[in-house]
Design a protein that fits this description.
Major capsid protein gp5 fold; 8 helices; 2 domains; alpha+beta; single chain; six-stranded mixed sheet
């Protein structure tokens, strides 16, 4: 069963852990909607569907031809992301009358963990950093990629519809793009005589929708990618989430907050935030991307 971080926080009785999870998912369209599958062990081996089986009509006494789907066996290993937050005991004793220093320091470390996960979710590449996992940019199949042109071009609604249509089995659950691309999309909608739909999500935040699909903003989608002779290009990702599509992997218990305690070499107390996690794409048809999006 896959469960989001937001739902996992409801099952925790640890106030500090709940606070850390709330900090991590705040303003993160990825972690707000990405479901995580708990696995026992250090990795998951699964079969990724490459080609579906086919069927045909036959006459009486025809020779039937066999057709079976093809798969690629994928093994995804859990990775370790996290960091230590040290709180000086002197400051904790003398300066906590204005602000809870422990909560503030842990909150900042939780924010760093969130940013590292989001960056890896999009740009992760194990050939560059073997300690991380592959992100959606690398996981996206070549056949699921749409280009704005040899040297890129300004976003059009027709191209956006094309990349959406590449996702099979239902509409994407989210369209991930940079803030610059979102501004272009808003301008396109106004030029066509309408506006993007908007509504509040379960966290009380306003979210825009294109064709009923939530538009998620990710600060780690670069606006400076090179396509042909252009080096000012961005990417739009259309993603379907869940088991059988794109899902996060986590060890039992998910995100962990560990109180290491007093340090031996300095007068401080350490809190460790750690997460054994990864990501799995069960079907390549659940992810597509539009490259070469210029301003």
């Amino acid at each position: 069963m896959a469960i989001t971080l937001a739902e996992a926080s409801k099952l925790s009785n640890d106030v500090l852990l709940t606070g850390v999870i709330e900090t991590i998912i705040k303003d993160s369209p990825i972690l707000q909607s990405l479901p995580f599958i708990e696995i026992v062990g250090n990795g998951l081996t699964y079969n990724r569907e490459n080609a579906a089986a086919t069927a045909a009509f036959y006459d009486v006494a025809d020779t039937w031809t066999e057709s079976t789907p093809t798969f690629t066996q994928i093994t995804t290993v859990l990775k370790i992301v996290g960091g230590d937050a040290d709180i000086d005991n002197f400051l904790l004793s003398t300066r906590s009358n204005v602000q809870d220093l422990e909560a503030a320091v842990v909150q900042l470390k939780a924010k760093a963990v969130k940013q590292k996960f989001e960056d890896t979710f999009v740009n992760g590449d194990t050939s560059v950093d073997a300690k991380s996992f592959d992100g959606i940019d690398k996981l996206c199949d070549a056949g699921q990629t749409v280009s704005m042109g040899t040297n890129g071009a300004t976003l059009t609604l027709a191209k956006l519809d094309e990349v959406i249509d590449l996702v099979k089995g239902g509409k994407p659950d989210v369209l991930l793009m940079s803030k610059r691309t979102r501004r272009t999309l808003n301008n396109l909608a106004r030029t066509s005589g309408g506006f993007l739909e908007a509504d509040r999500n379960e966290f009380g935040q306003m979210v825009q929708f294109y064709d009923g699909i939530p538009v998620g903003i990710c600060d780690f989608i670069s606006d400076a990618k090179t396509v042909g002779t252009s080096n000012d290009c961005s990417t739009v990702y259309a993603v379907r989430l869940g088991e059988g599509a794109l899902a996060g992997l986590t060890s039992p218990g998910g995100l962990q907050v560990e109180r290491v305690g007093s340090l031996e070499t300095k007068d401080a107390t350490r809190t460790r935030i750690k997460w054994y996690c990864s990501m799995a794409l069960f079907n390549t048809l659940k992810l597509s991307k539009l490259i070469g999006v210029r301003p």
